[in-house]
Amino acid sequence: MPGRVKAVVLLVLVLLSTTAAFADCSQWTAHTSAQFRTTALDLSVDGNFLWLATGYGVQLIESDHIVASIALPGPTRVVRAQGSGIAYAGSGANVLVLRRQEQTIQIVTSIAAGGTVNDLEIISTALFAATMNGIAHFDIINPAAPVKTSVLLPTSSTNVTSLATAKNKLYAADGDMTVEIFNVSVPSLPQGIGTLATIPRGSSVHATADDFIFISDRFGLSTDLFLGTTRLSTMQVGTTAFAASAGQTHFVAGPDRTLRAVDFSDPSRIAELYAASLAPTDGTDNAIHAMALVDDTLYVAAGDIGLVVLDATAIVRPYPLVSYGGGAKTSVRVNADKAWFSNGAGKITQQRLDANGLALVEERSWDAEPASLVRDFRSNGLLTTGGAKATVWSLVSTVPAQANNITFAAAISNAVMVDTHVVALLADGTVWTAPNGSTTPAKMNVPVMTLLARSGSAIALAEVRESDEKTVVHYYPTGDLTATPQQFTVDGAAAGSIALDATRAAVFTFNGISVIDVATGNIRVIAGSSLIIPRQLAFASDDLLVMDGLRLLVYDDARTLLRDHALPAEALAFDVAVPHAVMATTKGTAAVRYHAELPRPSVPFTSTFYTKLAAGSGRAYLFDDEGIDVFSTVVPTKPQYMTTVPAAFDLAATDNALYTLTNNGAVTAYSRAGVAFATVNVRDNFDSQMVAIRTAGNAVWVAIGNGCTLQGCSERKTLVLDPNTLGVTATLTGNVIDVAVSGSRAYALTSFPSEIRVLNIADPLHPSQILAAAAPASASSIAFSSGKVYVLAGKVFGYSESTLVLAEERLTAVTSAATHRIRIDGTCALVSRDTEAPVLYNLPSWTPAATQFALPSSLRSFAVQPAMLLFLTEHSLELEHPPTTPRARRRAVR
User: Mean pLDDT over all residues of the chain?
Assistant: First the structure.
């Protein structure tokens, strides 16, 4: 079974409910809920257990196993464990009390909170609920039976979005420029004691045990840091999700996919010690919402990415990585423990590399030419270039001084310092040298070059020959460009950079990274290196380091990929001081111990993202971008995965088969077991457009358009296909968008023209039209009951079947949508007009049924089968069916 659908089978709940059966709106039924998608929105630790709010409801996790899962009505956004097996969940506008009972979760009670619950905080014997209508206060002296009190906690805005507590104080963020503070030393009698004036849209507040307060705006762009009531700094990092760690190092995230570990000990210059961008999914919520650190394991609620787990043991001193802000840097050079960076304004900054930290400590800075880049360092001299000017700076004194200035004939592309002179590669491909102390450069008699590198006194230049798309590396072992170089030819045009050490040169072409042994002339290409486009290469002892902007790859002996480091910001340049790489990034500066193995987030439980549903007798067909999963619902309490068929544009089903339609016009018929038994292509021309596939009686209807351009299609028609051979047996004008069947008649809703049609399908392969009339504007669905044709178009319009004359209008009008559906069985109508659960109505009065369906998340689609309703929500497949009773055991005959 594919791993992506295992969760559907494992997470099945069977509940006896008071939901009515569809046929007469009165029969008691059973309810089966099969969860396939986890949108991890919040989490809370309870000893060895983890409670996870999933949108659908709540999951209980122990170690790497999902112990239990429960669906809760309304979107479940927050959960807090009280201990002793009790947890509180904020679902919609209610607080639900949950109890862990061995391998199950039980709903103890549900209490109205007075508004949609955004956050929960437990302080001793009180529970505080942040809602869109203020803070609700509950007495939880009896944890299983909370009592909502009349205690008022006034806030400057009613929509309270976040709560945090530290040192007998409760902090409340409500989306404006203040955070309210309450004294909760007596939790039953909280008292307002002041506010924190903070950033605009302060929507998230977190606190550490030592009363450091982090307040982030709802976009996660910046955070105010307070110690008690004293503001320490405003930092350009999001902390909408937060997990406190030791000291001043904490895990944070904004409302995106990037997980960070940040050292806040110096608020004026915070240091990122770890950053990982989580892989997105096909879901609609790919963002980090909450985190919890338990010992050395970090748990992350990351929306549709799911529950993410990170081993944090490596994020300790000396850190494997450090990254700072401070504005983009454009170049870097490093020597021993000194690193020099440039920025776009030409400011040069010297920083000390603290290997024990890991840290970069600013020491001094000075101004160079505008747009200057740091090019090389040698013998206390730092070479920078800006435009056509090269400057050698003496770093001996406290204030760096210009030891030499050289102006070349054109803009400098790269430059290095060898023993006695400066070598410059200009933008026009010419190479020039200037002896130490000289301001007059000389042009060298070499071919047009594209790349330049130095190692010790040796120099390598790369010449790209356009005539045969080869790259010739010219190697000068002593740096004397008047000498005859060794030449090495590699396939492809060089791009990015060239690297050189005492024995090797490396150059990238689109064939990969070629490594040249300068002593033997042997050339080899690193396996798999053509899959990246490096910005820069550099040798580091036996290793070759390759940077492509967002990653730093380490190849052992320039052969085998040893490490693949995700970088905390886009890197523009790097240099090496073994065993560290120092980087200039678009955010600032960074350093990494490139041999260290950075921890990688793992996702133990995956989700599936179904968007459409079709059903036949004993079968449910669930559609996503990867394929259509076939499930048996013969035993409705245990839907069983059977197989997966290829993805398509649309799908429809009968009791005997599944039919799919692709964008290119291929119609395929599958048996109930998912085996293809017929296929045909109904596309007429290259400009044909597929619209929909439906079934009516024992026939397949395919709606297509021909002559289609951006302005529309010149022809619209619906093909009637034999369900066994898929041969075309008839053609109807217009596109059928919905159809209902009763006996030997079909009731169709079409577009182009927009009509209601009554058809005779006694011979389903040759339907004949009996009657047609104009459909109401924006009609989306059609149904039939007791001599009337009902059309859903914002509200329900009822037409006489015999004349198609409008006879009645039902329900309050809403804005119509193509996803709205109406289905009728007997005297009960099921109408979906939004993302909530469909509403049951008694006919012919159209009064709401006494009992209604409650879904755990938004509705996507539904289907009707004899004795069964199937609801596809964003997170689950919900089955409403008669209760199954075990067969009585016969008494043995003696």
Answer: 92
